[in-house]
Hints:
The protein has helices spanning 2-53, 58-66, 69-111. With 112 residues, it is mainly α. It has one domain. The radius of gyration is 29 Å and the shape is elongated.
Amino acid sequence: MKNMNDSNKGIFLGIGLAVVVGVLAFVFSSDDAMEKTQSAINRKKAKHLVKKKMHGGKKSAKAVDKLSDSEINSLMGTVDKVKDIENSLSDVTSDFKNFLNDKMKDAKKVLK
Length: 112
């Protein structure tokens, strides 16, 4: 009986090790797959940005193709930050307009 328990332990240990290796391989491969997918998406966004917003042509698209994934990610991160700043400025400008309109209305009421 002792030999059977030892062999069962070995089998379970082998199965457990195989499961752990499989899970780790899945986790690392899915991270790589996600990273590659995000890089491909960012590259497409960069090409669109260069073509539509900066009025670039085929040479500009080829220049984007030559950038590394980290350069593309950095470029798109910068674009996102600029968009955030534009949105913040737009909000501040809108708030300032509303403030001035309110003050103008108050001033007209005082003058009447």
